[in-house]
Amino acid sequence: MFEIESLPIWISVPLSLIILVIILVATAYIYTTWTHTIFKKMGIPDPTPGLMGMLPLHAEKGIIELDLEVTKKYGPVSGIFIGRLPAMLISDTGLIKQIFVQEFSNFVNRNQFVPNVNIMKRAIANVEDNEWRAMRSVISPTFSSGKMRDMSSLINMCVGNMVDSFGEKVDPIKSVKLDEICQAYTMDVIAATAFGIDADCQKNPEFDFFVNAKKTLQFSFSAPIVVLCLMFPILTDICDYFNLGYMPRDCVKYFTDTVHHAIQERKQETSNKRDLLQLMLNTHKESTNASAKQMTEDEILANSLFFIMAGFDTTSITLGFALHCLATNPEIQDKAYEEITQKIGKEAPTYDNLKNLTYIDMIISETLRMYPAATRLNRRANNDTNINGYDIPNGMIIMVPIYTIHRDPAHWEDPDKFVPERFSAENKDKINPYAYMPFGLGPRNCVGMRLANLVTKMAIVALLQNFRFIQSPETEVTPKLSKGGFVRSENGIYLRIERRNV
Ligand code: HEM
């Protein structure tokens, strides 16, 4: 019989290595493709995945285009692969209602696709089951309408800085890229409302807080750690062991130190601040519910960090698109200005006077329909279950393509047209509530929704009181959207700004 040891060493060593490589490649191949037959067994159509699942397609087309194509070709319930992980891509609103609301107890958690540093595992978006329930009941009241009213004066200061910044960009010919100004505004808001920090990123774009937050959000499907963990989810455990995550280590350290320092300062003084950090520190004092859990310092830290990530970019994207939609629909901008002039005139926007501006609410809702900042919702089945005839196994990931549904002509007449009247008091009852989900759905929807709406509305009102936004030759009327996890303009939003004769 043939034995490797009997061969000369110069043949046996390379031969052994070749055999080892073949075994490793074959094992990796079997491991990564093992899941590929699951949808055939479930009777659900899916695009045949390649060796790397659909990662190359995610990178090449981007999430939005991929979801539109898959849904068009395979229907409202299909299978996709995120690395080796199978996920059901669902745009059937009946099924969505069942999963996100009626059967919520079976779908409480999100799937975490990429490794997170240990500290972030304590954030509300990442904790699971009863831990999430307890944390949500503590955090929700910090975003109540009363708390938002308290925070509105903090937001107003940031609005003032932004108006000044736009004022400097007024030009009869040149257009302005809005993205950085909107980002500086929402970063100021998060720094002020979450930590009581007066950042003024409009004047200090190099402020560490701002620079690190932007770096933290540079997530890409093609980053090596992301690709490896999606292809070999087992590596996530190894990353956990070494406390590795997709966020740059120096950013995590910067924010951890900043928040830790702020917490220590607050502990030493009797603070009457009304920002989110103080509200979280106060929760146990203010709670009337004996079973309500006091948050640990790590949890406060994790959530403060998460608020920066969840709140800053999403809100600035929404504001940028709202201004774009107003500039490209000047008659709607005029109507919005008319409402502001009639109802609050030149008064500075406040929590209370904003309530009268219902047309501005309609504009924000329609902006979020056309450009929902988040691309997909995600839940994971806790048990084997049967929903509407689909046998969904324990662990199955559910993905809901928000953009696809928001642009589906079956739910929205003329879906690519900006029509705020869809959300008027007379019309909004006609909207299928499971076809509109910019802030998610069900008990685990966006906890910061009130803050996001307030921040966007205050900015739009103050800006329209001072300026007119005008489409220019640089404006992409239909913005090209980026391929990443957020619905953002790939090339930036360019508009011309004119000062109103006030
Ligand atoms: C226009 C701005 C925003 C948009 C479009 C947005 C959208 C979303 C979406 C789609 C989700 C997932 C919901 C689901 O799975 O059903 C979410 C979750 C979340 N958002 Fe927002 N968000 C915005 C602003 C904010 C702000 C300002 C904060 C806080 C400062 C925030 C904090 C959160 C948190 C903590 C979660 C996780 C909730 C949980 O797991 O219980 N968001 N957001």
Automatic annotation (TrEMBL):
InterPro entries: Cyt_P450 (IPR001128), Cyt_P450_CS (IPR017972), Cyt_P450_E_grp-I (IPR002401), Cyt_P450_sf (IPR036396), Cytochrome_P450_3A (IPR050705). Pfam families: p450 (PF00067). The keyword Iron applies. PROSITE patterns: CYTOCHROME_P450. The keyword Membrane applies. It is found in: Endoplasmic reticulum membrane; Microsome membrane. The lineage of its organism: Eukaryota, Metazoa, Spiralia, Lophotrochozoa, Mollusca. One of its GO terms (molecular function) is steroid hydroxylase activity. Its cofactor is heme. Belongs to the cytochrome P450 family. Gene3D superfamilies: Cytochrome P450. It comes from Patella caerulea (Rayed Mediterranean limpet). Keywords: Endoplasmic reticulum, Heme, Iron, Membrane, Metal-binding, Microsome, Monooxygenase, Oxidoreductase, Transmembrane, Transmembrane helix. Cytochromes P450 are a group of heme-thiolate monooxygenases. They oxidize a variety of structurally unrelated compounds, including steroids, fatty acids, and xenobiotics. It is a peripheral membrane protein. This is Cytochrome P450. Heme binds at C446. Its main location: endoplasmic reticulum.
